[in-house]
């Protein structure tokens, strides 16, 4: 029961328009790194309030640049 309540709370955080800044989701209270977009039919996005999101984005960019150089 508690897990279902916690999931409902997390889902309501991602539905709150106050946590969205344009196409970017930023919510320090949300512990998830990857969250569903406001319209879940459109996929998933990073929680840019989580510092690990920036590390993953930098790693992806480095992999793309590295693959073009070698």
Structural class: alpha+beta
Shape: elongated
User: What portion of residues is helical?
Assistant: 40-55%
Strand content: 5-15%
Count of runs of 4 or more consecutive helical residues: 2
Transmembrane segments: 51-69
Keywords: Membrane, Transmembrane, Transmembrane helix
Please write out the topology.
Blueprint: H1 2-15, E1 20-21, E2 24-25, E3 34-36, E4 44-46, H2 51-69
Structure explained in plain terms:
By secondary structure, the protein is an alpha+beta fold. It has one domain (2-69). The chain is 47% helix and 14% strand. It contains two helices and four strands. It has helices at residues 2-15, 51-69, and strands at residues 20-21, 24-25, 34-36, 44-46. The strands form two sheets. The protein has a two-stranded antiparallel ribbon with strand order 1-2. Strands 3-4 form a two-stranded antiparallel sheet. Strand 1 (20-21) and strand 2 (24-25) form a beta hairpin. The longest helix is centred in the last third of the chain and has 19 residues, at 51-69. The radius of gyration is 15 Å and the shape is elongated. The relative contact order is 0.13.
Brief account:
The protein has one domain. It is built from two helices and four strands, in the order H-E-E-E-E-H. The protein has helices spanning 2-15, 51-69, and strands at 20-21, 24-25, 34-36, 44-46.
